[in-house]
Structures are given as C-alpha cells and as structure tokens.
Amino acid sequence: MPSPYNLEVEYNCSECRVRADRLFCNMSIGAVEALDTVKFTGLYPKGSLLFVEGEEPRGVFILCSGRAKLTTSSTEGKTLIVKIAEAGEVLGASATILGKPYEVSAETIEPSQLNFIKRDDFLKYLNTHAEACLHTAQQLSEKYHSAQREIRSLGLSQTTSEKLARLLLDWCDRGGEQTTKGIRLKVLLTHEEIAQMIGTTRETVTRLLSDFKKKKILDVKGSSMFVLSKPHLENLVSV
Amino acid sequence: MISLEGYEKIETWPAGKVLFREGTKPTGVYFLHSGDVNLSFSSKPLLSAHAGEILGLTSVMSGHAHDSTATTRSTSVTGFVELNQFLRLLEEKPALWLTVLRLISSNINQCWDCMRSLNAAR
Description:
The structure holds two protein chains of two kinds. Chain A is of the alpha+beta class. In chain A, 40% of the residues lie in helices and 23% in strands.
C-alpha cells in the first residue's frame, strides 16, 4: 500500500535509520526510547500550517522529513521568511521553553513527517534527560546562528542584488551539489518566497534572476538552479 | 540563581572593551553580571546583551566561530568561565540547563525582533 504523500514513514524513533545524522535525535537509545513514549507522529501535505505567530505554545514539532518555512510579519504586514527548516530540526522549541507565544509561523513547503511533543511532556523530558537539553541547546544555537546570518544580510547589504547573492552563496555552502555544470541548488521556493527571504518584491527577484542568467552567473533548469560562477556572486557581496 | 563560585573569573571592564571578536573561536563564556554589551556585525551594532545573559553561549554550544563582536557599552562586570570548565559546570549542575535553554531561546527571539525591524525599514 502506498504511504501518504509518498513519504517513507518511520513511526519509531528508536528504529529510525537516519537518527545518527540528526543533531537533535542523535541521542542514546534510552533517551530516544523515552522520546518515543511522548511523541505523536503526523504526516502533513505541503502547505500545512503547524503553528501561527502569536499563538500560545502547544509544544514542539520534530521535522523528521520534508521542509518547512518559518515566517514572521512586521506590523505593516510585510512577511519575512526567517528560515527554511530542514529535516532533523525542532520547530517551536524557543516558545515552548519560554512559555511565550510562538514568535514565528511554521508551514510545510513539502509533504512532511513531523513528530509532535506536547509542551508539558517536552519540558518534563528535558528535566529528566540532560542529554536532550544538550541536543536542544545545540539545535537552538544553530537556529541563533542562522538568524544572525539573516540579520547580517538584511542589515548590512547595500543592494537587493547583494542580498540575493548572499542567499545563493548560503545555499551553495549548505546543500549545494558540485556538478560539471556548476553548483546545483535544489530550489523549491517560488520567486515570491525568495523575495520574502531577502525582504524585497517578487518582481525584483524575477528581474535579478533574469539579470544573473544573462550575465551567466546562474542557470535554471526546472526546480534546480545552477550557480555557474560563485566568484561572481562573492564579488557582489561587499562585507 | 546557580552559584558559579570557583568556576568564573570576575572582571570589571570599562565601556569600549572588546570581549570577543567576530570570526574567532570561542574560548569560553562570559556571564554578564552588570552592564550592557553591543553585538556588532562588521562594526555595525545590531544586537545587544544585558545583565543576566551569557555571552558566547551559542558559539560554545554549536562549535561555530563568534558571529559578532561583543563590546561593552557601559562599565560591565563579567564572570568568564573557560570552555571545558563550562561544560563540566553543566554536568555538575544540570539545573543550569534550563537557564541555558531559556537564554538561547530569548536570544533567538531578539534576533527575530531585529529581523522584523530591518524588514519593516526596507
């Protein structure tokens, strides 16, 4: 029988084959078995809203497979994508730990498997497993560094082309695949979403990408983007 | 409050003292007991830290180099705990973990506030 959304579903964390590669989940078998007793596995289609900015924290979601975008809105209503969360990340942890409303909204951008842990259960789990605290702290620290990279881009870039160049370089460094054609980036974001990542409009992103293509800095084939000249992008980044 | 006696080296700094620089590897953490610290990116102060926070914490936890330069904005008192000592402290006083997790969570929220402001100002 085909699995929902063609996902390879893993219901038991202790039997998960990719656990060792995941920052949060790579814990001792005892800690993982304890995790199995408090989590609820769910399968979500693309576009599922997991939690909304301003909502009281219900708990955390472990993104087992798939990807999700984390967004925030300014008082003027401008949406900003603060992060594209990858498989292995824990979503909603900072709000859950602080007991304050979620600061961002989370929405799947691919069919995804998520393990949900209720807030009380997650806090109890942390209290009884110091190892889980370490892994949560590492996970949150990664998120903090990612947020600082975004701040650097938003706060220091002089031009929108510089912001786009920074984003493409960031994708090259994290998940870019070297091919004979160039560095292959698997881009599943729309131009609108790329615009929301660098704080600009969709029209500007479309124009800049077209400009980059004309200058042979990159090429687009289907949902893949190839960076043909990384040095050219690096030259666009001033600081 | 967890006692850090025997672990930390207390120092008082005037305004303008650089505690660590962007791009350098963390050697430990600074418990900021009083004062304020600017966190600058390429010399531009975009974030700040206040009494009660632990500076360099996320770099120690993630193993990344410091993303920003920390400079005291006012006379500040810090307690420096060397990296291995800090990890030992966490082992010996697991109650400190909750403080660590709360502080990192607050730092993330501060980043997202900053991003909202930068986005609104575009």
